[in-house]
Amino acid sequence: MRRTARLAVAASTAAVLLIPLAGCQSAGGPGSTVTLTAAVPYVMPNLDDSAGLCPSLGEDGARLTDDALAACHDAADEEVNGALDALDLAPLRIGALPGLGEGAYGTVGVDPASAPHTRLFVREGTSYTVLPADGRLSAAQLHDGVELALEATDLVRDPAVWDGGIEVSLTLVDGGRTERAHAALRVAPLILTHDLLPIDRMVMSDNGTTPEDAERNGYDPESPAEPVEDGEEVFREELSAALEAAGLNGHLLEYPTGGDRWMRDQFITGYFAVPDPEGEVRRMDVLLRSADVMPEGSTADFPLRDAGRSAYTVLGGPGTAVIQEYDTGRVGDDERSQLWGSFSSTGNFLVTPPDAGAPVGRVLYGSDGGDAAPDADFLRLLEAQREQRPLAVDTSWLGVGHIDEFLSFVPADTARGWAALVADPERGLELTGSEDPEVLAGTRIAARGIEAALDLFEDELGLTDEDIVRVPALFERLVIPGYPRQDIVANALPAVANGVQTGAGTFLAPEPHDAAFKAETEAVFAAAGAGDVAWVEEWDYAHAVGTVGGEIHCVTNALRDTTGAGPWWSGEG
After folding, report:
1. Interior/surface letters 219-257, b for 16+ CB within 10 angstroms, e for the rest
2. How far does Cα 278 stand from its chain's mean position?
3. Rounded CA gap, 41 and 12, in Å?
4. Model confidence over 53-83: pLDDT tens digits?
5. Which residues of the chain have pLDDT under 50?
6. Could you tell me the pTM of the whole model?
């Protein structure tokens, strides 16, 4: 099988001013008040590499471990690495206290749960100094006020450990008088991108260059690679032509995989965003690496599929963070990874476009709630972000088990402005007239699985028939002796739903090799107001590979322009 064989900011968010606790006397002399002010109530997880300092290899020339790659980022040291790095810190200010006694002092700190995930700096102009461990500030420092900067050194991964809320506290002591002030902030969540956002760059596999080659010799993702796999040259040419037709000429990047062509399974894209003090939005792109622990020799040093490392070494850097999260208990269990690991691939995750009840969309993923489920730690991280409320969809009836095998999203003339693009196996059977027993069986299995998913979407997302655009598909049942999942299906013809929305009015669809499929797809797109269809030949490069194969969505990844994405904090008031 494949993959295993500028926005307005509400005034209420512009500042946080917390006054002394009730009953506390002013320690700053008659009529004075201690204030601790945060310019905005959110802080960016400072996980990019603003100065490009993260190495690809260790000092001894050996490959860094997966965890060592993930551990290198701006927040990994106690330095502010230039002006770009400083922009990712949250500014705070202690108001001037000119009437303090000579022995007065203040202490600043964060709540115990946040302490391991944050760092405070004292800022003087463009100079940043880490606040001492005791958080002590002298009367001389407090006289004219103190500029602070808060750094978040991580995102929320496990809310039982840290929920992302940060309380910064100031205690002022002047003789026998004590006064306190507090500021409350929240670390920005990871928001995964949806497919209606415009493509900024599209990524496909450089199959002839291994991740280690790129780590040792450097890599230019804009330099076309020599095709080495069957159908690769044709696919690249047709994909480039389709992007050009969509107005995206020159937006295709290479990514070294050493033959692991399933690009969507290497990482999924997202972003962090916070309002800045001027009322605009600052963003950081994020690549969330797949938690797919590979069979055949995964180790504690190199547990995940190797091609995922290139996200760090080729695509990560200033303004782009790369993160990973996986259950270390899965490492070394090769049999389990072989049978169930594909559910952890990021091709098994989609995001709905924004809706009234989900302003930044909802995460959908394939799972049966049992063995056929993604990595638990990876899911916990997604759930911990709180904004996209991940929803499990039973995909155990699919050969690979990925939700993108039958579903994607397109713009449409609906109240929502979008629709779910869904495979229609019964219509596909009608159009082809196939009487093959495995196709007939596959149609029954797929139709049942898809209708169950649509029932779930009606209940959980409020989708109605007008929100569904059906395109013909042809499924066949797979018979794999000894495999723990039976009555599973694969797409017998390239799956139209497994295409890529460019966000520019064009849908990149796999050439289905069936004239009736193409004609009906173009007709339903036109009727739905879903834009144009650009057909891309990928049979040899994607569809016919392995037992199940895949399509365009599987063998590409899209780095999307998030400047038009709405603010996740809009619902916080």
Report:
1. bebeeebebebebbebbbebbbebbeebebeebbbbbbb
2. 26
3. 10
4. 999 999 999 999 999 999 999 999 999 999 9
5. 1-32, 573
6. 0.94
Strand runs labelled E in 435-548: 468-472, 475-478, 488-491, 500-501, 506-510, 532-536
Helices (H), 346-470: 376-384, 425-432, 437-461
Among residues 211, 187, 235, 183, the alpha carbon closest in space to that of 35 is found at 183
Tell which CATH architecture fits domain 11-46+89-187: Sandwich (2.60)
Please, are residues 166 and 112 in contact by the beta-carbon 8 Å criterion? no
The one-letter code for the residue type at 487 is: D
CA 390 to chain centre: 12
Q: Tell me how crowded residue 322 is: count the other CB atoms within 10 A of its CB.
A: 28
Per-residue pLDDT at 22: 27
pLDDT at residue 335, rounded to an integer = 86
Burial of 206 (0-12, 13-18, 19+ CB in 10 A): buried
pLDDT at 296: 83
CA angle 46/14/39 to nearest 5° reads 50
Give residue for tokens 């290497």: 266
> Please, where in the chain does CATH 2.60.40 lie?
11-46+89-187
Q: Please name the CATH architecture into which domain 191-572 falls.
A: 5-stranded Propeller (3.75)
**Distance (Å, whole) CA 88 – CA 37:** 17
